Amino acid sequence: MRVLISGAGIAGPTLAYFLAKAGASITIVEKSHSLLSHGQNIDIGGSAIAVVKKMGLMDQVRRFNTTEKGTQFIDPKGRPFAPLPVKENSSVSFTSEFEILRGDLAVILYEATKDHPNVEYLFGTTIKEVVSNDDDTVKVKLSNGEVQDFALLVAADGQWSKVRKQCFLPEHISVVDMGMYAAYWTIPRLPSDNDWWNIYLALESRIITIRPDPHGTARALFTRMPCNDAQKKAWLEASRSDRQTQIELLRREFADAGWQAQRLLDTLDETPDLYFQAIQQIRLSEWSNSRVVCLGDAAYAPTPLTGAGTSLAIIGAYVLAGEMSKLEDGEHPSKALKAYESAFRPFVEEVQKIPFFVPAIAHPQSAWKRWLFHTFVWALSKVVATPWLVKKFDRNSSDEDFPLPQYPRFDEGSKTTTS
């Protein structure tokens, strides 16, 4: 079976790893000319940890840990309070035990697949056109001019997937806006910086955070929930505009935010990786169309608010590959695609349920609302520091939250599947 995957991020290479074990021949196209460097923090939890262990990659994941000791909040005078330290096999901190930069995880997955005889990477290449998608094949035209036939096309090209746009009707795609915007970038690390995720709640619905990385730099994050129509319009327009417009908006809206706002604003012109986004969920009414299927954020971006995007991508890739591995010779891939969706969609929909008060509760407009939130997290830090209280509500962060199906083909090695 020849499979084409669009996107060499997290979901695509994970899928390639397991499909290759089942004997499929995989081509991965990636628009970037090389893997993007480092990126921002992501974490792996629940059943995704079990999948990574099946891949034999836990040592590498631990080696690239961001070194973050935990999460702590910063008060209006710049003083840290309410520490929530990382604890092994515990969920009591906003920092994961398996915290890693997106780019570092992508490199790990690439290294685990690039030398497999059944896997080929084409960097600097995109799918220019999906020519046809029928009972026999899915035919695509690549940006290098080649036209090829595949048994399956996988859109693993992110939240705003261009493959999905070509193969799924607009009315099948729901975008759920969370009313929040975020800007991420890399900053020089100062001797005074620590190894905690430092979170400062500015007034007027703004957040500033700084967190460590394992590469001698640090990661900055600004988030904003616009408070009026004029702000909403400005942030929406900036999210669709060029880098300079985004920088000007950030400087205008965060100049008086306090704490280390000015230090971070001063780095914007030089940073190589400013990423500006509206926080939105993707909900797709059907994840597949004949021989085309969406995976990861292309099908079900849950937003960073859930902390589960990476885990969903990893688990989803495992389930999709597993269902594909069960096909008999000559069976249409749609059988496996429907089984993948049937098995995994209920879990995805649960993860995508975000309480109505999130993210507004962490973006106070007024001083008294900030005081209430600070009081809550201060009390939480005291509970976390009390072992007998923690036991009452803590859960093991490594426990499987989605029961992983077992797929015999993954253990058989290199038998070949055809379709």
TrEMBL record:
The lineage of its organism: Eukaryota, Fungi, Dikarya, Basidiomycota, Agaricomycotina. Residues 396-419 are annotated as: Disordered. Residues 2-351 form the FAD-binding domain. This is FAD/NAD(P)-binding domain-containing protein. Keywords: FAD, Flavoprotein, Oxidoreductase. One of its GO terms (molecular function) is oxidoreductase activity. PANTHER family: MONOOXYGENASE, OXIDOREDUCTASE-RELATED. Residues 409-419 have a biased composition (Basic and acidic residues). The keyword Transport does not apply. Pfam families: FAD_binding_3.
